[in-house]
Structures are given as C-alpha cells and as structure tokens.
Design brief:
The protein is mainly α and 301 residues long. It contains 15 helices and five strands. The strands form two sheets. It has a three-stranded antiparallel sheet with strand order 3-5-4. A two-stranded antiparallel ribbon has the order 1-2.
Length: 301
C-alpha cells in the first residue's frame, strides 16, 4: 500500500507516483477508473460549444466549492455570478460571458437554484442542489472504488463519499489545491495533447478501457475504434476526432492502421502517470476531508 502525501504543496511527488504505479493492483484500478470516466460522461453539442469537458467538470467543482465555503456572516460570500466569473476567469477556465452562460444552463438543468434566504435580490446568490452533489459524488465513487485497494485507508475514503461533511471537506481540499497550482497533468506531459482537446481525455480513457481483458493497461495490442461512434458518444464532430488521432499519431503517441489504434510507449507512460497522479490527488484531498469531518472539525463546519 502507498501512503498518500497530505501536503497541499506536494500531493503527488514523482516518487509517490512511481510507487503507486508499482502496486500490483494499479492496472486494474486504472482500467476501472478509465471505464468509469467514459460511462459517466454527460454532454451535448451546446455544452461543448460553451466549454470543453475538463472545463465543465471544473466549473461544477467551483460551483460546489463556492456553495460550500459560504460564510453566513458575510452576505457577499457563497455562489453568485460575480464570484463565479472571477474564479473561473482567474483560473483560466472560461471567459466571463461563458461563465454566465454555464450558470444559466446549470440552473436550467436543476443543478443550481436561487437561494431563498437572500433578501436583497441584487445579490442573486445561488445554491447547489442535491442533483449537482449527487452527480459529483457518483464520479468520486467510481474513482474511490477503483483506487481503494491501492491505499491502506482506501475503503474508508470510499465509505465516506456519502457523508455531507466529507463532501464539503473534499471539494474544498480539491479546489484549494487547484487554486494553489496543482494540476493532474503535472507528471503526464505526454497526455497534454489529449488534455488540451475537447473529449481528449475521454477518448484516451475509452481506448484504455477497450483493451482486451488479458492485455496490459494501457493496452499493448491495437484497439479497434470507430470515428463515427466516438463522435456520437462524446458529442463532438467526426473531423474533431479524426484530427485528434492524426495529431496524436504525428506526435508519436499512437500508431493507426485502418480502424485500429496502438498506444505508443510515450502515451502509455503519460496515461499511467495521469491516473496515478489523479489517485494521489483524490487520496490527499480525501484525507484532509476526513480529518475535517471528525467531531472537533464539525464545530467549525
């Protein structure tokens, strides 16, 4: 078992990433996590036009973070359009206009609702609904279930997912790490091409999960793909998928032969580092959340 660092400044140092990758169960955890990412994907062409899949995920995290950190004594705190625009723009997620559009879509979708306790309508504060919390918990549950065997306290992390105090602490720890500069791609530079493109991580995850049961993770053998099926599955155009694959091939990350894709060593290495870093990020944040959810921490919550 690998002990996850709890320091926000160094949640996934190279030594910890390497140690986690060497765990006997890491390949199974990576495959389960990749398959879960694909299964949970929810998107549309309109959402893709507004923001890529990574941006939408972070936007949901930021909304819950602002909701969770509201100070009842400060009327200006919490989730409101002004604070959301500032946070999203400061962290380079989207423009002010797109932030407002995403807030409107989240309200329309039932993920956010106006705060009925606000007297001054000019504040326009919003609150996260159970629907948003359930959506994010579902995602966390997939990853914590996949990574649980890799950590001595992994089962405790998974068991805590439905605890409201844990949820609050987890989102705070995750977003504050992000605000302090942590990025999952830090040790996975060869995944950069996929991370920069809409649906890129999802397509890479699909290819990882599509490997044969007796193959390595990521797969060593070629994986069959359909450009049209990937485009439909992830609500992007066929030219978008084709360009991604062509660019990845030109960068030496994959090899293509007809309707099959082969992971090259650089992408396989980057993918392993990506999932190991993500697991450490979740584990470090979860440990902070569990510590905050103890009786002494509840008084301040």
């Amino acid at each position: 078992m690998v002990a996850a660092p709890t320091s926000r400044q160094d949640v996934a140092p190279p030594a910890a990433v390497a140690a986690l990758r060497n765990q006997a169960g890491f390949a199974a955890a990576m495959r389960a996590s990749a398959a879960g990412l694909v299964k949970l994907y929810q998107g549309s062409h309109l959402l893709n036009w507004l923001m890529d899949d990574r941006g939408r995920l972070l936007f949901g995290y930021f909304a819950l973070y602002l909701h969770a950190t509201r100070d009842p004594a400060d009327p200006a705190s919490g989730l409101n359009p002004t604070r959301m625009r500032m946070l999203a723009c400061d962290l380079g997620i989207c423009s002010p206009g797109r932030a407002l559009a995403m807030l409107s879509l989240m309200r329309f979708g039932g993920y956010l609702t106006p705060d009925i306790d606000v007297v001054d309508r000019r504040q326009r504060r919003l609150v996260a609904t159970d629907k948003l919390i359930a959506l994010l918990r579902e995602r966390w549950r997939v990853h914590f279930a996949a990574m649980a065997p890799l950590f001595a306290d992994g089962e405790a992390m998974l068991a805590a997912v439905d605890d409201p105090q844990f949820t609050r602490g987890l989102i705070i720890a995750m977003v504050e790490r992000f605000r302090e500069g942590f990025r999952v791609m830090t040790h996975a530079e060869d995944m950069g091409l996929f991370g920069e493109r809409n649906a890129g991580i999802l397509i890479c995850s699909y290819l990882i999960a599509a490997g044969e049961a007796d193959d390595t993770v990521p797969p060593t053998r070629p994986v069959p793909i359909s450009i049209a099926a990937l485009a439909r599955r992830f609500a992007v155009s066929r030219p978008h998928v084709l360009k991604l694959l062509r660019d990845a091939e030109a960068a030496g990350l994959i090899a293509r032969s007809g309707d099959r894709v082969l992971f090259k060593p650089a992408l396989a290495e980057g993918a392993r580092n990506f999932f190991a870093t993500m697991f450490l990020y979740y584990a470090g944040s979860a440990r902070e959340a569990m510590a905050a959810a103890k009786p002494a921490g509840r008084a301040a919550g």
